[in-house]
Amino acid sequence: MFLAVLYCLLWSFQISSSHFPRACVSSKNLMAKECCPPWTGDGSPCGQLSGRGSCQDILLSNAPTGPQFPFKGVDDRESWPSVFYNRTCQCSGNFMGFNCGNCKFGFGGSNCTEKRLLIRRNIYDLSVPEKNKFFAYLNLAKHTISPVYVIPIGTYGQMNNGSTPMFNDISVYDLFVWMHYYVSRDTLLGGSEIWRDVDFAHEAPGFLPWHRLFLLLWEQEIRELTGDENFTIPYWDWRDAENCDICTDEYLGGRHPENPNLLSPASFFSSWQIICSRSEEYNSRQALCDGTPEGPLIRNPGNHDKTKTPRLPSSADVEFCLTLTQYEAGSMDKTANFSFRNTLEGFANPLTGIADSSRSTMHNALHIYMNGTMSQVQGSANDPIFLLHHAFVDSVFEQWLRRHRPLLEVYPEANAPIGHNRESYMVPFLPLYRNGDFFISSKDLGYDYSYLQDPDPGFYRNYIEPYLEQASRIWPWLLGAALVGAVVAAALAGLSSHLCCHKRRHLQEERQPLLMEKDDYHNLLYQSHL
Ligand SMILES: *[C@@H]1O[C@H](CO)[C@@H](O)[C@H](O)[C@H]1NC(C)=O
Ligand SMILES: *[C@@H]1O[C@H](CO)[C@@H](O)[C@H](O)[C@H]1NC(C)=O
Ligand SMILES: *[C@@H]1O[C@H](CO)[C@@H](O)[C@H](O)[C@H]1NC(C)=O
Ligand SMILES: *[C@@H]1O[C@H](CO)[C@@H](O)[C@H](O)[C@H]1NC(C)=O
Ligand SMILES: *[C@@H]1O[C@H](CO)[C@@H](O)[C@H](O)[C@H]1NC(C)=O
Ligand SMILES: *[C@@H]1O[C@H](CO)[C@@H](O)[C@H](O)[C@H]1NC(C)=O
After folding, report:
1. For a FRET experiment, which of 225, 295, 387, 392 has its CA 20 to 30 Å from that of 317?
2. Atom of ligand 3 nearest to the CA of 161
């Protein structure tokens, strides 16, 4: 008994932020529409006695949304989280979490006053023990029931408007699979009616902020689960990859020798069971995914439809995306032209920025390429490649933010598809986060990417400074050398025009093959269009 209480106490100290806290799913909470659990540090709701936060009415933005979703009052995710709750904890200062028991991203320490900056690294830069530790964490998360969160297994209506709660336990890893399913699932309209053209995290401006928050929360859960306060997700840099080079047993799993759709029995993930992969079945039952195991991970990299996705993204594709100056454009959905978001997401040609519904490029290309669990939006987070892939997509978003330094106003305030306005709260997170909150540099959220880091400040001190010092000591010699140099330069002046022409011709020769390569590539695209 004592141990159980201690266990609960320990866990509630580590409480953080995400979907449906256990503490808020009683019929009492649901009927009152209140989710303001006590912070265990002082036992008061939202840690109010310690000045951490207080229970407040939720203020919803009333900015209009786009025409893509022509309904009102039919989906629990509309005006998130107002169907379930109208009061939550609002935390002050650097506190965060559904009970203000956590620190904001980028802060740590018992009073959340210490600034943190953690680095996400290329998976190939991890040592073998570091890499194996990462896989061990994944496995632990997959097999540990979340002490803090549960998932709803019915709609609000199916719960009789909260009077008969329907919630299930879920593992820490599967909680995230479920959240990704829930945010992208179809709308159940009753009878046999379904609305498919809706997604609270894809095909619209919220795509990048939503997945950014998703990864941050995932890291936070792993840190709490393992006590490894410095844990970060590694990324897979897929630029110019010719195949799935991380699909080996040492990394994310090789191919099964007998069945090309399955993982090799020697891989870390061959025994994993997937959830939330059967959208048609849920739709036909007008039910939600309830987390029941649905079989092994499916993956068959490279077996995809090549006319839709002829290749994986190149460095040139990424570079082109980064030159697009508009974050979002036009109707702000998958038909948007010259939208950085739409091009990086993969609904536009990555060499022109023009929307192209016949192709899956960039981010989408990786999903399609894996030809299995990764390829269906709702179940894709079952495959741990999802995390490494999205970490890299997020790094490209970060590069764009650093290059263009947009004001918050650049993120659309109104008329985006439902759920995607700047002030909309992101589905299905509790406590509440707005899309616009993540339209800032990752350094302000406490993380950076190893390949984007500023050059080491020690570089100047260790290399440039001694060099300048040395130069100052020998300056008379340098001056003399410069004078002699000037005479020699004058003597050589006659030669220079000849050299110049020669050089220009040389440059042209160098550039020719590059141009041809590009033209050939266009032809290839047009051909496969037919
Ligand atoms: C919140 O919901 C409860 C239960 O439906 C209701 O009684 C209360 O008036 C609502 N509060 C606000 C501020 O809307
Ligand atoms: C945190 O804040 C409390 C109350 O202000 C204070 O008593 C305590 O010493 C602080 N702890 C640290 C580690 O700063
Ligand atoms: C739930 O609430 C809706 C809207 O307020 C109402 O129409 C419906 O009858 C309620 N259902 C139940 C089972 O209470
Ligand atoms: C995390 O990193 C900090 C700074 O490098 C170090 O002081 C601390 O011991 C690390 N914590 C763990 C659990 O490794
Ligand atoms: C795998 O690719 C084939 C085409 O090569 C396609 O018909 C099939 O639907 C894909 N499977 C998945 C799960 O994406
Ligand atoms: C995007 O550009 C293409 C080609 O110029 C054009 O046909 C299409 O109508 C444009 N789409 C939108 C939504 O403006």
Report:
1. 387
2. 1
Ligand closest in space to the Cα of 372? 5
| CB of 25 closer than 8 Å to CB of 162 | no
Ligand 2 atom nearest the C-alpha of 110 is 13
Fold annotation for 2-303+371-454 = di-copper center containing domain from catechol oxidase (1.10.1280)
* Helix, strand or coil, per DSSP, at residue 107: strand
Best residue for ligand 6 mutational test, from 337, 339, 347, 352 (most atoms within 8 Å of Cβ): 337
196 CA to middle of ligand 5, Å?
Answer: 20
Which bound ligand lies closest to the C-alpha atom of 57? 1
d(CA 417, CA 214): 20
Q: How far apart are CA 415 and CA 332, in angstroms?
A: 8
Least confident of 15-24, 222-231, 294-303, 334-343: 15-24
Q: Out of 13-27, 120-134, 167-181, 387-401, pick the least confident.
A: 13-27
Q: How far apart are CA 257 and CA 427, in angstroms?
A: 40
Strand partners, 88: 35, 56
Flag whether pLDDT at 41 surpasses 70.
yes
Q: Is-contact 268 136, C-beta < 8 A?
A: no
Within 8 A by CB and 6+ apart from 388, the residues are 123, 233, 234, 235, 236, 246, 252
Using a 6 Å cutoff on CB, does residue 33 contact ligand 1? yes
Atom 10 (ligand 2) nearest CA: 111
**Interval between CA 30 and ligand 2 midpoint (Å):** 35
The radius of gyration computed from the CA coordinates of the chain, to the nearest angstrom, equals: 27
Domain locations along the chain: 2-303+371-454, 458-529
- Rounded to the nearest angstrom, the distance between the alpha carbon of 111 and the centre of ligand 2 is 6
Length of the chain: 530
Residue 460 DSSP symbol: I
The confidence band for 80, taking pLDDT boundaries of 50, 70 and 90, is: very high
**Do residues 231 and 131 touch, judged by C-beta distance below 8 A?**
no
pLDDT classification of 524: cutoffs 50, 70, 90:
very low
Q: Residue 337: CB within 6 Å of ligand 6?
A: yes
The tally of CA atoms less than 13 A away on the side-chain side of residue 25 is: 19
